[in-house]
């Protein structure tokens, strides 16, 4: 069965932007599920690199795939059980029969939307969700990343909930569970946010939840840069499945989506009309983004001994070829821009480390389209939103198929 990406799946992934977290606590801002997932998967990627340094390429690829799919499975599960508080869910999980009953119901709810992803995807998700007792490396990395991202949220609301009798118990639970994960490379450094370059970088990435997209346009929901990056990563993964991308290409596409707006943390959210006002302005802003990226992120990580992390970030962000939206491969150890069509053919091999810049751009555009479309559907009328929809529609009417994805036909489903 071929994989087909449908509107319903894209909207399901986006729906986490509505899903509030810590809903029984006073919050300094809305904390939503897609932001948490973005932070979690960024941290999972860091732990993935640090815990696979001694692995051969095949084992490393398999681990990366397990982490990405496990993260997506966890997210889909979470979207369905949204109203169950964590303490209640953990008690259910302790009872194998009750957990199986709940999970079977979740899978039944998800099936209509994810069935187009194919029988193999369904089987893997069923296997993953029905066996939570698995303590393999991928699961442990995802669990540590989940705890870190959730604890980061907790620290945001801790100071304004001092009278809450649950706070001490909640914090101690986070501390105890994270301490139990210190045998994983990188966990100790992540917990030392002030003294560790790695911990500081992870905390910095979490700050992207403060940065709202479309900052001059009212929207419901108000997606952040952090949540948007996760949505783009998930879309990139699904489109990679649809076009038959090799394992390396699929993973590169996911992680490129997960980091593609990282430079905006350093130059703030400069709105698209300013970026696109002229080629000179666009290039000027890009130059400043890259300078700040090196100064604040890449150079400190290199100096801290994390050269492998900086090299992958540079590749995901397309620094060697000038844009994250260009197709690239590694030929004889050199990062090289590649013709888009060749990524589906002679360059679609793990050994060439291919990355689909054009497919990433499609995912980014569709995520923006759904943001605007959803806001309009929710009653927010804005010239900027209407213009954004029109601009994206026109772009893909002129070029309906990009990187093997039928973009124009997919957008037509939203009309």
TrEMBL record:
SUPFAM superfamilies, alphabetized: HD-domain/PDEase-like
InterPro entries reported in the protein's UniProt record: HD_domain
Gene3D superfamilies: Hypothetical protein af1432
Ranges of residues in domain HD: 205-389
The protein's name: 5'-nucleotidase
Naturally occurring in which organism (per UniProt): Pseudodesulfovibrio hydrargyri
């Amino acid at each position: 069965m071929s994989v087909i990406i449908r509107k319903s799946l894209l909207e399901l992934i986006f729906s986490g932007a509505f899903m509030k977290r810590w809903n029984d606590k006073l919050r300094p801002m809305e904390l939503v599920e897609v932001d948490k997932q973005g932070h979690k998967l960024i941290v999972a990627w860091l732990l993935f690199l640090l815990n696979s340094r001694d692995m051969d390429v095949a084992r490393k690829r398999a681990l990366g795939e397990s982490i990405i799919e496990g993260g997506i499975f966890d997210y889909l599960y979470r979207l369905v059980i949204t109203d169950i508080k964590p303490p209640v869910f953990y008690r259910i999980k302790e009872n194998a029969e009750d957990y199986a009953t709940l999970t079977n119901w979740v899978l039944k709810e998800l099936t209509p939307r994810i069935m187009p992803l194919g029988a193999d995807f369904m089987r893997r998700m069923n296997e993953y969700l029905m066996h939570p007792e698995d303590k393999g490396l991928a699961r442990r990395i995802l669990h540590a990343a989940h705890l870190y991202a959730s604890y980061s949220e907790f620290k945001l609301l801790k100071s304004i909930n001092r009278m809450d009798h649950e706070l001490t118990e909640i914090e101690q639970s986070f501390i105890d569970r994270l301490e139990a994960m210190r045998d994983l490379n990188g966990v100790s450094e992540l917990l030392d946010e002030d003294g560790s370059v790695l911990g500081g970088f992870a905390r910095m990435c979490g700050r992207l939840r403060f940065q709202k997209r479309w900052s001059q346009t009212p929207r419901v929901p108000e997606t952040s840069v952090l949540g948007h990056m996760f949505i783009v990563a998930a879309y990139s993964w699904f489109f990679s499945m649809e076009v038959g991308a090799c394992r390396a290409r699929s993973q590169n596409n996911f992680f490129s989506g997960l980091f593609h707006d990282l430079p905006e943390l350093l130059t703030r959210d400069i709105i698209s009309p300013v970026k696109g006002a002229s080629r000179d302005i666009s290039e000027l802003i890009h130059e400043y983004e890259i300078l700040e990226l090196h100064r604040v992120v890449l150079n400190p990580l290199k100096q801290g001994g994390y050269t492998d992390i900086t090299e992958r970030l540079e590749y995901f962000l397309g620094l060697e070829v000038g844009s994250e939206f260009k197709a690239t491969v590694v030929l004889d150890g050199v990062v090289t821009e590649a013709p888009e069509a060749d990524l589906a053919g002679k360059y679609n091999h793990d050994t060439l480390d291919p990355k689909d810049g054009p497919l990433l751009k499609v995912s980014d555009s569709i995520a923006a389209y759904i943001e605007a479309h959803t806001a309009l559907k929710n009653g927010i009328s804005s010239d900027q939103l209407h213009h954004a929809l029109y601009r994206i529609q026109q772009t893909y009417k002129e070029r309906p198929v990009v990187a093997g994805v039928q973009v124009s036909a997919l957008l037509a489903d939203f009309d």
